[in-house]
Predict the structure of Splicing factor 3B subunit 3.
Amino acid sequence: LALSSRSWVLYALAGSLHTTPLSYTALDAGAPFSSEHCAEGIVGIAGNTLRIASIDRLGDAFNSESLPLRYTPRRLAHHSVSGHIVVIESDHNALSADEKVQLYEAAGIPPPLPAGTVLPEDDEADGMLMESVVGVPRGGPGKWASCIRVVDPRARQTLSVIELADNEAAVSLAAVPLRERGGETFIIVGTVKDMNLHPRTISAGFIHVYQFADGNTTLNLVHKTQVEDVPSAIAPFGGRVLVGVGNRLRIYEMGAKKLLRKAEAKGFPTMIQSLHVISSQRIVVGDLAESFHFVRYKRSDNSLSIFADDTAPRHLTAACALDANSLAGADKFGNIFVCRLPHEVSDDFNDAALMAATAGREDLALNGAPSKTEEVVQFHVGEIVTSLQKASLGPGCAEVILYTTLFGGIGALLPLRSREDVETLTALEMHLRQEAPPLCGREQLFFRSAYFPVKGCVDGDYLTTYNSLPPNDQRTIAEELDRTPPEVSKKLEEIAARIL
């Protein structure tokens, strides 16, 4: 155990030494502890409290706690005033909670307990069934079950749940401060009714506006606005609501009985997947199949116009803004990329300049914009990325691009800020390809370039195989880098320490 500004544990696993920060309160002092109930533990002092803890799983970089949900979580939003989290859940081919109860009552069967429920230990547990064991009845194609949940992350408990009726499914969510209500934060939820997946058809779309009540523990429906297509993305925009409705971008204001449409932009290729507000006049729109589009908002005439887009058609699954000109995205083929708008491209132009730049251009028929982004990073992960977020994982740690995958993986992309690190790690990766090719025969370079050539990124997972090489191979590679094997291992540990 090592104590500094953070608590660290050093241990040997699989023949190598690991240093991992503890996901625990910072300790002032610590010592080994052993008893009948805790064979290998740690006793420590944190402030004026005495704590006894044990490490359950060596090798896990993260400590996770789970909260059972009814359906598949789709989006979440953070309420900055109360600190609570709002989660929307929806499942296709499923029945709602009330419909399942009615079905069980009609069949004369006691309803099984939902997933995550703990069976009682008394005699009442006899004959009780669990949904995770016996399964749940299916609703059929075009049938949806969905709910909106308010969660207290500190207490790790659910405060309230709103079940959506009439075969509505929640698809988008945002916490939006509205200037018409004095900056009060409302929860905006986009839903669809009777949606079929292939082909995608709906009978109606709605934008629900909810207000917090009862000490920010429940949600009250203020009103809902009907739209003609899927409200697939929602974002706050200067006290108003920015909504992607199908392939249209709209700005809404709060009204007494419904949201009032104030501006609209058409011409996006397929369907808006994500919205990123960069400034009061720049918006980045992520299209479902055509990557990013940069949009300028002109306040004087309340208009929206596209002035730049990406060069490659990307089927986006996740995206996040890095700065005013750069965005990170992931597509459904398992690629992560970063595209950047050149500095000479500006959204500060008038309509005459836009018309002059686009006059006679044939690419407008192909949804082309007068300016294009540049690709600076391209990397094939191998799994579908479900979320991207720029974050720091601890005090003193560098900012990374954190991503999660469909199979439950968590990864990070770390920016290298010195040319020495870039040259060293790039050379190490090149020598590893030559001296230690993968056992299965698959070329690492070909794998990371499965769809696009890898660019601007070093494979950190592949670099960690250096420590598992035979000593002679380690020495050979280190000599090519004008270093010793301990120096190379230390460099890899320093890079990993910047993340955790």
Q: What stands out?
A: Confidence is low (pLDDT under 50) at residues 355-365. Residues 267 and 317 are 20 Å apart (CA to CA). Residues 419-435 form the longest helix (17 residues).
